[in-house]
C-alpha cells in the first residue's frame, strides 16, 4: 500500500495554480474569483482575454471583493467548488 504523499514530495500530476480577482463573496465559505488568461486566436493570431469564474473555498470568510488571490486546484468540495486559497496577494483598497 503506498504511503501518503507529503507536501515536500512532487506530485505525478501537479495541481494547477491560478491568480485572480475576487468578484463575489456573498456565499458562506465560498468566494468567486475571476481568472484572466491571455490566448492567441488560432486563425487571426490576435491576443484575446478569456475570463473564467472559479469557485473558491474560503473557510474563515476572509476574502473581500477586489482582493487579488492565488488559488490552487483541489478535490471537488461541492458541485462547482474545486479550488482553495493559497494566499492573498493584495487586499482591496
List the secondary-structure elements in sequence, H or E: EEEEE
User: Mean pLDDT score, rounded?
Assistant: 92
Structural class: mainly beta
Q: Which strand order does the major sheet show?
A: 1-2-3-5-4
Number of domains: 1
CATH architecture: Beta Barrel
- Helical amount among residues, as a percent range? under 10%
User: What best-fitting shape do the alpha-carbon axes yield?
Assistant: globular
For the terminal residues, how far apart are their CA atoms? 50 Å
Rg calc? 16 Å
CATH topology: OB fold (Dihydrolipoamide Acetyltransferase, E2P)
**Total of DSSP H or I helical runs spanning 4+ residues:** 0
How many DSSP-defined strands?
5
Residue runs with pLDDT of under 50 for 5 or more positions: none
Instruction: Assess the beta-strand content as a share of residues.
Output: over 45%
CATH superfamily: Nucleic acid-binding proteins
Report on this model:
By secondary structure, this protein is an all-beta fold. The chain has one domain: Nucleic acid-binding proteins (OB fold (Dihydrolipoamide Acetyltransferase, E2P)), CATH 2.40.50. It has strands at residues 17-24, 30-40, 47-57, 68-73, 81-90. A hairpin with a 7-residue loop joins strand 4 and strand 5. The radius of gyration is 16 Å and the shape is globular. It starts with 16 loop residues before the first strand and ends with a strand.
Amino acid at each position: 500500500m503506498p504511503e501518503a504523499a507529503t507536501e515536500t514530495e512532487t506530485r505525478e500530476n501537479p495541481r494547477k495554480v491560478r491568480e485572480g480577482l475576487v468578484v463575489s463573496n456573498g456565499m458562506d465559505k465560498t468566494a468567486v474569483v475571476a481568472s484572466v488568461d491571455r490566448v492567441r486566436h488560432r486563425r487571426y493570431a490576435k491576443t484575446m482575454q478569456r475570463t473564467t469564474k472559479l469557485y473558491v473555498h474560503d473557510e474563515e470568510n476572509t476574502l473581500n471583493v477586489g482582493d487579488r488571490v492565488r488559488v490552487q486546484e483541489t478535490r471537488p468540495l461541492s458541485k462547482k467548488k474545486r479550488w482553495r486559497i493559497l494566499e492573498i496577494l493584495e487586499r482591496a483598497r
